[in-house]
Amino acid sequence: MGLSSRIALVSVGVSLVVLGLKYVAYLLTGSIALYSDALESIVNVATSVAAVLALRVSAKPADANHPYGYAKAEYFSAVIVGVLIVVAAISIFREVYLNWFEAHAFDASPRGLMINAGAGIINAAWCVVLFRTGRRTRSPALIADAQHLLTDVVSSAGVLIGVALAMVSGWEKLDLILAGLVAVNILWSGWKVLKESVGGLMDQAVPSDTLGRIRTVIAAEATGAIEAHDLRTRQAGRMIFVDFHLVVPGEMAVSEAHAICDRIEDALEAEVADVLVNIHVEPEVKAKQLGIPVL
Q1: In this structure, how many other beta carbons lie within 10 angstroms of the beta carbon of residue 21?
Q2: Do residues 141 and 39 both lie within one domain?
Q3: What residues does the Cation efflux protein transmembrane domain cover (predicted)?
């Protein structure tokens, strides 16, 4: 089991613990805002489970039916996360609506607030772990999980402050307003996750800094060739796919052109992790003078 899969598995346990703590805090206070916070943690559990399944599928090696591997499975996980976030937000809005027109009271339980604060601290610490691991392994599933968890941390902090103010002031509607704001924040988080996931499913190009590194390596390692053009990149989970046309002198032997391609591929694999390179060799009459000049 790889690092990403192990982290995702631990994330399930962490989210279950946090869910339990937040639900206890809601039971002690009766606060709809704390209920919304607990409901968001149910989504955390679901997203953690989805991440575990997606990472297991994405780790499968390429086969005859999937020659490019299963890396895109992580994007499907992120889409599921986005949908679950939207469902959670709708559920919170429903609770706010049902309680808005009825008398709603909650207990000023410091113990409940302290328990919720403890859950928030656990979430914040684990969010840092998820972001670091997700970026290191280029895992959309872990990053989506971390982004949602970050939203949970921010909204939990706001909810705690607001509920404390509602308890002190006795303004019961403030509790419901806070729950509604949590729902809006959750919706925004879901939109960002869905947007990034769809970009991956649509074969979005690699970030500009990564593309710059790829171009630099090609220019430095293509000595003997004339130029490289029609460079295309796409990212699928942790995998990066690179293809381009390499123009060489017409009289160059096939073995020499092949050696240049091998040199470029080795350099790209050393510079960019989990990269798959495809190079199409062309004679000099195909030069466009618009590609990557060879150093």
Answers
A1: 20
A2: yes
A3: 9-202
